[in-house]
């Protein structure tokens, strides 16, 4: 240590302290830890979604753009986070936060997460993950079996086979879908004769070699936007994501799908993949998965099912029939931070055939060498955390029975809420829940009656007013912070395919009660009567009344 | 609630308990939490990298492939994890774990992580992240400024601008590199005339429209394997990743780079991107970033710098000159779970020009609508956790000064270790450290002397023996569990470009002492004398001796 400058010696010691485990339970860090726990418990017990505060106001706390020169105390930063970040975050675990797919966590996830963070394993290779690698393989095996129901011999052979993987764990559904479509693309244009495969030579030469003008991915209009993103990333272009019409229940029209495949075939465009959806993001519907499998087979296309939301429906004896045909998929996406109730962000894709992942296999000299057990050779990501630990914990602590209760409850609650909306004269259900998602809007009774007898121009006028009102109610309710529903835009057949803005509700939090749901409707009704919405409401009422009176509004206003 | 079955009512209550915050500090969950903390503290204080145990043995704990039907207690699962997972994981924070880029964490990351896990925010949209969104924008701004040093007006204008993003946060360097190259690819073939852009029409039409035969990404032979993966994913094919020769210090040869660009141009292949490396994964060298910028400009290519490892060198006044030219990059990758000392897994890419990210912009109806502040519109991933919170905490608690100490210490320690290796007659340094990474191998003095006078065939024979011995020592040392260095394969010019297997050392843990490093050499020396290595050592010694005696080994063995 001779020859070192004095400041360097002092700083070595400072760093040593920062990286050393604090032994004493009465240490400052332990005290901070307890403060944080208390504060978080308080936050999580409140039933407020978010404090009423404009985001541009919150930005003030995060306006420094220079990395500070001098260190601050951990206690100071903890206080800063509690005051400015926690206090201004969204209470995604609140029972009245029913607008998105981010829900409450089982509380045991918190202490168990500590193990994951403290061990800081890296799943790319066994050298930095050891036992975490077989654990992740087990989780992939369990989800594979949930979907594909292979026998014990299958899993004993493949689950821990170093040269194969039953799937790929990743940060979420988007990467899971991208991984599946990457595999699909590479399988569609394999090495043959003088062509060394698309993975090696790229899409341009692949299409030239195989004599195609393009490659397409087919999915219903309700497909998740990540699929369009994947088409872009994979070099196919967003046009290659071909949206197929749905029926009134937001399920893909199988005949239209087949027609589209035939049409593409005529245009010399390779039908590369067909994607079924098991739980559409906006309406929670499930495509006819079995019929789609047949079409995929007919056209030699990779069959992918995006079950990011709906996959865990397989836990429910009562509802798993909705997933019929999923076992025919070549690949299936699951999101663990959705209905497996694991913290953000982890998803996975499972492959029916254990050899599928080899289409995207990569190696390097210092890790993921051939023949190693390293999981990193077939994942899109490199370094990855040990989130599989939390999935395993959920699967063991809640078990199939626990997840079944969560699924059954959610669907049940959605049906009850749908019935409640049906029973209110001033609301209308837009999509009836198949899983635990529904959409609706505020629409006074006379407007509903007027809509039924309106000509297209009048109906469009009513709809435009309703859209503005729905948007106003949704935004204002969110800003008030007591409850949160999201909004989206649908084009329902029964409203002449007009773009309809609707409230979207996701019922995945077991703590959400019927009383809370009734209160949400009540607040929305009050917001519809808010002075700020008065002008729009006046036009709406006037338009409706004039339709009902058989007079054209245009005459009246002229 | 009438009409519900009794079991359903009971299970509703069970679920209510699981999702409700346990209030009492003496609750079972609090006790489990404390047990976990104690156990982890014990694990982290041990200086053992891993217990000696074969992975196939550990797999037995993870052999169930069926999701359990019945729930188990949290305490039972916690005990299972402590006994089977924690006990068999790799102690990446051990000061003698110096083989990979996964290092110790500052201990304050643990309590602060709890905030992130408990709040379970989703950064894809402000509706599920609120204050976390401006915080993430701040972190992107801070890293942007660290790299590009723009003035206050720049950050006040752009940092919180809802229509722009100064970068994209993601799960790690692989996705960061892929995002940068996705942007590069889409910018290389933009909409023009009748062509609606590669993002819309895909690579096949893009190349046809622009009259190219392909598109290439150029990087040195030491480029990270994620770049080849990105070339595959993006539809360019792995061949499109053109590896350029390096000089003796593993830095790209600028003349060779320029020649390669000219050659590609002649072949009508678009030079789409040039990647500089700021800290090669295997040897820690930094490309001549400034000279590469000039070439990228000359050929109109996107200039990306992969600073996943070396980026934080910018914190050091003493060493930041190594990064000169990084500020000319269009995009720069940083890995936060590497030298920002944040838990696995988070990385980011920053863009010099705030409009760059628009090349990959996506929108959806229910989130990331145009004009929203949602960060999800320009990220490859969808749902993402609030890891930015931990980066911000690191930047404030350690501050520039703290990170500077870590960087300076690491480089200093690598130089000291290199000097130690140099001073040992039976080891040889293969790559001299520029940052905090070096490679070396065990090589007895007489073998070194023999190598110097050997003909190519003899040298190759020596090298093959040395490779086997290095591999044996590295594997056995890892299995023994006291210390861990990794291994990789290099082709150094001074060893006739033979593939040399070498020990690779990454010195990023401030707790690693010179004593530990000396012990690691000592254990390796003992392993070289291990009976299991005796046959190989005998051949090596024999070969060396016969070279030294001026006699061909072939004669002797015939």
TrEMBL record, chains A, B:
Its cofactor is pyridoxal 5'-phosphate. The modification N6-(pyridoxal phosphate)lysine is found at residue 338. It comes from the Bacteria. GO terms for biological process: carboxylic acid metabolic process. GO terms for molecular function: carboxy-lyase activity; pyridoxal phosphate binding. Keywords: Decarboxylase, Lyase, Pyridoxal phosphate. InterPro entries: Asp_decarboxylase_pyridox (IPR022517), PyrdxlP-dep_de-COase (IPR002129), PyrdxlP-dep_Trfase (IPR015424), PyrdxlP-dep_Trfase_major (IPR015421), PyrdxlP-dep_Trfase_small (IPR015422). GO terms for cellular component: cytoplasm. It holds the Pfam family Pyridoxal_deC. The keyword Lyase applies. NCBIfam families: NOD_PanD_pyr. Belongs to the group II decarboxylase family. This is Putative pyridoxal-dependent aspartate 1-decarboxylase. It comes from Marinobacter profundi. The lineage of its organism: Bacteria, Pseudomonadati, Pseudomonadota, Gammaproteobacteria, Pseudomonadales. The gene is panP.
């Amino acid at each position: 240590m001779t020859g070192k400058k004095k400041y360097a010696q002092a700083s070595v010691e400072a760093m040593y302290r920062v990286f050393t485990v604090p032994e004493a339970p009465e240490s400052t860090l332990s005290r901070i830890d307890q403060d944080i726990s208390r504060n978080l418990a308080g936050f999580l017990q409140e039933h407020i979604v978010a404090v009423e505060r404009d985001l541009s106001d919150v930005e003030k706390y995060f306006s420094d753009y220079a990395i500070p020169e001098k260190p601050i105390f951990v206690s100071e930063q903890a206080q800063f986070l509690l005051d400015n970040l926690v206090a201004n975050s969204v209470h995604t675990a609140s029972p009245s936060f029913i607008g998105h797919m981010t829900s409450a966590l089982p509380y045991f996830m918190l202490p168990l997460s500590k193990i994951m963070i403290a061990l800081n394993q890296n799943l790319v290779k066994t050298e930095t993950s050891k036992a975490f690698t077989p654990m992740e393989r087990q989780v992939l095996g369990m989800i594979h079996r949930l979907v594909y129901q292979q026998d014990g011999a299958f899993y004993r052979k493949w689950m821990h086979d170093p040269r194969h993987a039953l799937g790929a764990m990743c940060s979420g559904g988007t990467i899971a879908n991208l991984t599946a479509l990457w595999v699909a693309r590479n399988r569609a244009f394999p090495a043959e004769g003088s062509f060394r495969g698309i993975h090696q030579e790229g899409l341009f030469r692949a299409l030239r070699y195989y004599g195609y003008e393009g490659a397409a991915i087919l999915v219903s209009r309700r497909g998740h936007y990540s699929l369009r993103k994947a088409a872009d990333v994979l070099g196919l272009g967003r046009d290659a994501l071909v949206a197929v019409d749905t029926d009134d229940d937001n399920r893909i029209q199988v005949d239209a799908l087949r027609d589209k495949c035939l049409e593409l075939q005529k245009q010399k465009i390779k039908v590369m993949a067909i994607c079924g959806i098991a739980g559409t993001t906006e309406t929670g519907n499930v495509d006819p998965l079995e019929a789609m499998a047949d079409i995929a087979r007919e056209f030699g296309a990779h069959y992918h099912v995006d079950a990011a939301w709906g996959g865990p429906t397989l836990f429910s004896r009562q509802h798993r029939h909705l997933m019929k045909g999923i076992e025919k998929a070549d690949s299936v996406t699951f999101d663990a931070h959705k209905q497996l109730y694991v913290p953000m962000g982890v998803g996975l894709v499972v492959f029916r055939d254990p050899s599928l992942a080899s289409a995207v296999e990569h190696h390097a000299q210092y890790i993921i060498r051939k023949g190693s057990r390293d999981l990193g050779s077939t994942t899109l990501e490199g370094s990855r955390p040990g989130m599989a630990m939390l999935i395993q914990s959920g699967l063991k602590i809640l078990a199939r029975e626990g997840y079944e209760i969560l699924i059954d409850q959610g669907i049940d609650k959605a049906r009850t809420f749908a019935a409640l909306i049906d029973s209110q004269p001033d609301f209308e259900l837009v999509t009836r829940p198949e899983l635990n998602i529904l959409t609706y809007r505020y629409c006074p009774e006379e407007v509903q009656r007027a809509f039924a007898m309106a000509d297209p121009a009048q109906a469009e006028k009513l709809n435009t007013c309703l859209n503005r009102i729905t948007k106003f109610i949704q935004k204002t309710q969110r800003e008030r912070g007591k409850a949160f529903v999201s909004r989206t835009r649908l084009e329902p057949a029964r409203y002449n395919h007009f773009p309809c803005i609707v409230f979207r509700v996701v019922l995945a939090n077991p703590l959400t009660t019927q009383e809370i749901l009734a209160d949400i409707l009540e607040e929305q009704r009050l917001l519809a009567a808010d002075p700020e919405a008065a002008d729009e409401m006046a036009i709406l009422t006037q338009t409706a009344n004039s339709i009902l009176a058989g007079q054209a509004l245009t005459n009246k206003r002229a």
